[in-house]
Amino acid sequence: xxxxxxxxxxxxxxxxxxxxxxxxxxxxxxxxxxxxxxxxxxxxxxxxxxxxxxxxxxxxxxxxxxxxxxxxxxxxxxxxxxxxxxxxxxxxxxxxxxxxxxxxxxxxxxxxxxxxxxxxxxxxxxxxxxxxxxxxxxxxxxxxxxxxxxxxxxxxxxxxxxxxxxxxxxxxxxxxxxxxxxxxxxxxxxxxxxxxxxxxxxxxxxxxxxxxxxxxxxxxxxxxxxxxxxxxxxxxxxxxxxxxxxxxxxxxxxxxxxxxxxxxxxxxxxxxxxxxxxxxxxxxxxxxxxxxxxxxxxxxxxxxxxxxxxxxxxxxxxxxxxxxxxxxxxxxxxxxxxxxxxxxxxxxxxxxxxxxxxxxxxxxxxxxxxxxxxxxxxxxxxxxxxxxxxxxxxxxxxxxxxxxxxxxxxxxxxxxxxxxxxxxxxxxxxxxxxxxxxxxxxxxxxxxxxxxxxxxxxxxxxxxxxxxxxxxxxxxxxxxx
Amino acid sequence: xxxxxxxxxxxxxxxxxxxxxxxxxxxxxxxxxxxxxxxxxxxxxxxxxxxxxxxxxxxxxxxxxxxxxxxxxxxxxxxxxxxxxxxxxxxxxxxxxxxxxxxxxxxxxxxxxxxxxxxxxxxxxxxxxxxxxxxxxxxxxxxxxxxxxxxxxxxxxxxxxxxxxxxxxxxxxxxxxxx
Lengths: 481, 179
Ligand code: SF4
Ligand code: SF4
Ligand code: SF4
Ligand code: SF4
Description:
The complex is a heterodimer. Chain A is an alpha/beta fold.
């Protein structure tokens, strides 16, 4: 099968061996679980339990609201002890509405939907089960999976791509999942393909994961519609646009969804969750997390209940050998700084990575050397040094004109920059600023309309008043005559 | 017959006057100076008067004559100031502008006596509520101009910053401030 090359990209140090070699371990039940109501893109879920309620494992705690949303379920049986603010796993460290659950240690399951032959279900039934199970993209984006399945009804999908790239350094949770659960992953893949009506399915795996490639090939061998594709290890292979280009040769135009060009991309972890939900009726209540980085004593992959505080994971993996310079959620390229170890694992958490000073590459910044390396590696063909200069000077509109909005925040430019400019950070800031301006603009237009409506209303009221006055005089004249 | 006639006359009169009023305000608002026009475009258009001018149109004229700084409009904030500077071909240092961020009016439920004065003062019709009932502010429509707070007889309207949440949180600029 032909492979296409996307532009730019880098080959960062993988650092995957310390975790890839160990089988996935199971975390003992934590003392407390903190389950945020917003773990996905879209509207937060609405709680359906109250403090003091006893809940069973898999019971729905909060239902989805609006078209883009996902419910959340109890990761184990226990008692709801609080519903309120808790630190979000988000770099801002802001609180988020969270249900706190005290496990009773019994792991008693709620009555779940009976296991069925999943291929006897209609497409709508598959989508409904995926939605009710609260499945979101487990690769990190956390976009509700059922919404993506549904998009298949609006745009015909010819190709389903399963993302087994895992191009971020340190992360190996998808690698281990494919090695240890290939059969379930493939079944989930077939269900997603059925749900989308995709003609062809490609499972793309980077060539630095030979064991996973082999396991998936064996598991998929019986299904002629599915091919397992070995793709080169190059960051950001796992980014949706780059993966689509690599597999199909097609480019997703800026601002468009992959579904609009007939492609749908799902992560391998999502496929496994779909299999569990559709075949066994089990909602998404746990996930595999890579606990790694040089500061972790015994790095490894762990399957944990959603809502487990990062601190419990670090402790399970032997704690820190040195005080980490930075603790990230997700990989070092696109991951976000964890504000504190009390922040919980959520559906989109692929890793807890604790970096030492040497790994964090904390070097002080110098002036731009105009070396052009950032330009060479940018996968979208932007000119990061120019963008950075404009953003620094506060010329956000100019940066927007140069394509700031197309930036993937992949961090390739910052990675190679010999002057250590905080390019990725500058661009995150600029994109936020662009969004804020768009919002301000929208509000200004809204204000103008409202002010205009008020002016017309006052004018009409004044006119009505003026009209009433002569009316009274006429009436008077009539009665007098 | 006379009755019907008088009703018709009244209706016609009402319509005509309304039209005249509309026209008059068009005339009053109309300017021939393209710069003033562009400046007016850039201003929020709510005629709230916080700049010290009776409305955005007058503010624009003052700006065009160089009588007012580009930072004159509090509800417009930094974004509007930047646009004004661009139109006038001047630069401005955002550091000079105390960017208090957008504000929202909030009616304190225990203070509101339902007098409806705030409704009449609001330039964007952002307040809802019947007489003698609790009034509420529509967050979407409020520009935080503070006109309502000024007229409220019980001091029951506060202007508050919009709280930072996960939804509107943004990255700070590297090297300034902190997360
Ligand atoms: S972070 Fe943005 S500008 Fe930098 S390489 Fe990635 S896409 Fe290009
Ligand atoms: S890589 Fe860094 S130093 Fe080189 S041109 Fe880009 S921003 Fe400047
Ligand atoms: S402060 Fe701004 S919005 Fe209010 S009248 Fe003046 S220019 Fe218009
Ligand atoms: S501050 Fe008060 S008067 Fe001004 S827009 Fe908001 S609600 Fe209306």
